[in-house]
Amino acid sequence: MSACADDTTNTTAGDENSDITGDGIEDTETTNGNEEVGTDDATSSTDADTTDADTTADTSTDADTTADTTDADTSTDADTTDADTTADTGTEESTEETTDEGTFCDPGETICFDPDNTQTCVEDGSMFGDPVPCEPDTTCIGGECVSECDLIEANPSSVGCSFFATKLDNFYNNSNNPAQNDSLIVGNISSTDLVVAQLYYVPVGGGAEQPEGPPVNIPAEGTYTWSLGQVEIDSVTTIRQGGVYRVETSRPVVAYLHSPIGSTATNDASMLLPEHALTGNYVVTSYPNTLNTAYPSYFTAIGIVDGTTVDFTVTDATQGGGGVAALSAGGSTSVALDRYSTLNVVVQQTTGGDVSGTVISADQPIWLVGATECANVPAWPANTYCDHMEEAPFPLEYWGQEYVGAHAPTRGNEAYHWRIYGGEDGITVNTTPTQPGFPITLDKGEFYSFSTQDHFVISGDGPFLPVQYLESENPNANTGDPGMYQMVPTEQFLSSYAFVTGEGYNVHYAQITRPAGGADVFIDGNLVGGYTTVGAFEVADVNVSEGAHFATSDAPFGVVQVGYTGVTSYAYPGGLKLEIINPQ
C-alpha cells in the first residue's frame, strides 16, 4: 500500500491510513463495486490413535475468524479468524483386556482424559491415575498438552504467535516527527478468547529484548496497534545491532507493518509472516528510485538466529558501509548476522538504481523487506506523486507455478504495471490471455516488466512471483498513488481469511479470486457476486466499509485488500497457506 509525496515540493499530500489483514488457520487435516459479501466457520479435525492402550483421541480445531481495527495503542472488537481448539479423547475402561504382561496399561503411558486434562498410567500398570490439568491456553492431543501456537506451526500459514518488525526508511524520517513512526498492528483471530500480547524491543547496540510497555489484552476479534519509535536507518548501507521489535502472543494472530500508520504521505504496508515460517531464501522485490538520488531502492534484513551467514548477489551497484562491501552489478558478498542484527543495503545513489532481483541465501531464517524510499510508477518523474513502497516478499519455498493476475480495482483509465520474478534458472512463463512479450524465460532473480489493462492467468514450469505496482495518480488514475503487492499462488489459497481496511481512505475493496463456478464466498455473512471470468478463474471487487471483515468459503480462494484516496493507496494479500512447494 502507499501514500505519496509530491516530487517537486517534497511536502506531504493526502491522508494516510492503517490496515491489517487477517488469515484463516488452515485445516489441521490438510496441510467495483458495493457487492454483498459473508461468514462461515472453517473447521478442521485430527484423529489420533493410541494403540498401546487401545485408546483413541479425536481433536478438532474451529477456525472461525473476524477482525476489528482500532486507533493506535488501543484495542477494539474485530472480525478475525477463530482458533478455538477442542480435543475429545477416550480413556481406558476397567473391562478392557489387559496387555500381554497382564497389566491394564503401560506404566508411564499418558493419555488425554478430556481436552483439558491428561492421565498417566501408574507404576504397576493397574490403572490410570487422576486427571492432571493442562496449562492455560493448551489442549490435550495424543496424550500431550499442546498450545494453539504449537498447532499452527505444524500446519503453517500467515497466522502465528511471534512476529518481527523494524522501522523502515521512508521519504520522511521519524527522527523529529513521531507521526512518521511505523506501526505494528496485531489482530486476534479468535471469536471467543482474548489474546495476551507483549511487544519487545532491542535497543540499538543491545542484544537482549526488553518489554516495550506492559502486556496488553486483545479481545476476541479485536486488534491492537503499537507505534514503533526507533529511528530508521536512513539511506545508508550498514549492519546495526538492535533497533528491532518483536511481538509475542498467547494465541495465534495476524500482523502487519505500516510505514507509517494512517493516510499520510508517504506510506505503504506489508503483511508479515510469523517467525516460525521465515526461511533464508529470498528474491528482493523493489522499484527504481525516480525522484532524485536521495530516496533510493533498498532491502532490510533482520537476523533471527545467532551466527547466521547471509550471502547475496545484487542486480545493481550497491553502496558499501558498516562492514558491508560495496558491490558492482552482479557482485556477491557475505555478511554475518546475530539475532536482532539489522542489515540495510542501499543501491548506489543514482536515479533509476534498483535492488530488485537481488538473490539472498542465508543458512538460517531471516526477516526481509524490499522497499524504495520514494518512486513514481511508471518510473519517470512526470508521474507524480512519488511514494514509499515496500513488500515483505514470500520466501522462495512458498512460490508457486500458477497465479491469477487480477489487476487492482479500477480508479480511472490507468494501466496496471507488473514484474514477474524468476525463482530458479530457465523457467518458462506464459499468460492467458497473452500479454505483451509472453511467453518469457527467466533465471533466478531475473524479472520481466510489462503493463496491461487486462486480468490474466499466469503459469510456468517452475517457481515465479508476480508483483503488481499501482500507478501514480497523475497520468490516468485520478486518485490513489504508487504501491506494490505480491500475488498469492493458487496453490497457497485458504478457505477463510480475516482482514482489516486502512483508515481514512475514500474507498476500500476486498478482491476475491476463486475457480470459475466454484464454491460460494461470503464476506461478513453476505454472498459475493459480480464476478468477472479470467480463464479458469473469476474475480470480484467487493466494496467494503472501513474496519474489520471476515471472508470464508467451503473451498480455497484468494483475497487481496486494496484502498484508495487522494494521492494515497494501499494493497496487500489477505493471507496464504505456507506449504513448501519449492524445497531449497
UniProtKB/TrEMBL annotation:
Lineage: Bacteria, Pseudomonadati, Myxococcota, Polyangia, Nannocystales
Listed name of the protein: IgGFc-binding protein N-terminal domain-containing protein
Compositionally biased intervals (Acidic residues): 70-82, 90-100
Pfam families linked: IgGFc_binding (PF17517)
Biased composition, class Low complexity, residue ranges: 30-69
TM segment ranges: none
InterPro entries: IgGFc-bd_N (IPR035234)
Superkingdom per UniProt: Bacteria
IgGFc-binding protein N-terminal domain segment(s): 268-563
Region (Disordered): 1-109
